[in-house]
Amino acid sequence: MQFNEAINWRYAAKKMNGQPVPQAKIDAILEAIRLSASSAGLQPYEVIVISDPVLKAKVYEKSCPQPQIQEGSHLLVFASQLSVSEEDISTYMERIARTRNIPVDSLNGFSDSIKNGLLSMPPEIIKNWASRQAYIALGFGLVAAAVEEVDSCAMEGFNPAALDELLGLTEKNLGSVVLLALGYRDEEKDFLAGAAKVRKDRAELFTELVA
Predict the structure, then answer these.
(1) pTM of the prediction?
(2) Contact between residue 25 and residue 76 where contact means Cβ atoms under 8 Å apart
(3) Cα 173 vs. chain centroid, distance in angstroms?
(4) Are strands 174-183 and 74-81 parallel, antiparallel or unpaired?
(5) Rounded Cα gap, residues 96 and 101, in angstroms
(6) Are 163 and 176 in contact (CB under 8 A)?
(7) In what helix (H) or strand (E) does residue 32 lie, and over which residues does it extend?
(8) pLDDT at position 152, please?
(9) What would the mean pLDDT of 79-91 be, rounded to a whole number?
(10) Cα 62 to Cα 69: distance, rounded to the nearest angstrom
């Protein structure tokens, strides 16, 4: 399936058939998320991958009573950091130095610019910024799933506090922001399966400016 075909094919699947997604496809989707764009490359979030039926049932009962939670093959919980510290930034600098085989001291200017900019912001601004980074990663996951011909449904309609407690996220400096169910559509039970995608046309969506 070509890229444009894949993103036209995808939709927010409302009913899934319980068929497991092959691990190779899950790995491809997770790798796309790992390689997602992120402000300054910091990736201030984690993605919790849930395939265990018992745990999915608990998520359904305590936080998100939507059928895709249990009918899907995997559930991804995008959880952003509640705060960002100097240690987080230093760890990122060490990762850059290790990956690119350069002295970590050569990154002092970059490190200082991030610290001076990001850490000077109010905590609530930093928290909101981190959650937006998680949403960028979600977008990569949605597109990767479509390319792999795996159905998906992003969900915000859940109880974050209950989910955070269930998964022990708060003590890890994390808060759940959005869910992504992965699986295969139930053609017979999903009223949207096969429906034409409805989007704004180009003239409504795009404004081209010239000098």
Answers:
(1) 0.96
(2) no
(3) 17
(4) antiparallel
(5) 8
(6) yes
(7) helix 23-34
(8) 98
(9) 97
(10) 12
pLDDT tens-place string over residues 1-42:
899 999 999 999 999 999 999 999 999 999 999 999 999 999
Four-residue CA torsion sign, 7, 156, 65, 49: positive
Q: Which two tokens stand for residue 188?
A: 């017979």
**Any idea which residue has 């610019």 for tokens?**
113
Residue 94: how many CB atoms within 10 A of its CB? 12
Contact 11, 192 (CB under 8 A): yes
pLDDT tens, position by position, 169-178: 999 999 999 9
Q: Three-class SS string for 121-187?
A: CCHHHHHHHHHHHHHHHHHHHHHHHHHCCCEEEEECCCCHHHHHHHHCCHHHCEEEEEEEEEECECC
Within 10 A of 29 (CB to CB), how many other CB atoms are there? Answer: 27
Task: List the structure tokens of 185.
Answer: 């559509």
| Helix, coil or strand: residue 206 | coil
Burial class of residue 149 in the structure, from the number of CB atoms within 10 Å of its CB (0-12 exposed, 13-18 middle, 19+ buried): middle
Q: How far apart are the C-alpha atoms of 43 and 169, rounded to whole Å?
A: 17
Amino acid at 47: V
Q: What pLDDT does 75 receive?
A: 98
User: What pLDDT score does 1 carry?
Assistant: 82
